[in-house]
Design a protein that fits this description.
By secondary structure, the chain is mainly alpha-helical. 64% of the residues lie in helices and 4% in strands.
């Protein structure tokens, strides 16, 4: 007699999806540019692995959230850099000019 019970491997969250989210959130505090870029890269890798091995892993939403937060973090760093450059260009006194 055959065993009618089918044993399936447990589906779990892909570790790189969690790493992507943590790095991207860290990009807002203690890893400003590095965390955001690493979060985007690990998010892409996690999503590809999740799609390739859908029977083993889930967490595509977590990876996507990490990627989105990473792009937002890069946007913040770019905006702050532009504001600093503009402040230096327009509000620094030129040498030899008395105001």
């Amino acid at each position: 007699m055959e065993n009618p019970i089918e044993i399936k491997p447990a589906v779990r969250t892909h570790p790189l999806a969690v790493v992507s989210l943590i790095l991207s959130v860290g990009g807002f505090s203690f890893l400003p540019l590095f965390g955001s870029i690493a979060g985007i890269i690990t998010g892409h890798v996690a999503r590809r692995n999740i799609r390739d091995q859908a029977s083993l892993y889930n967490g595509e939403t977590i990876a996507k959230a990490g990627m989105i937060l990473g792009w937002i973090g890069i946007g913040f760093v770019a905006a702050i850099t532009i504001l600093i450059i503009l402040a230096v260009l327009f509000f620094m006194p030129l040498p030899g000019i008395i105001r």
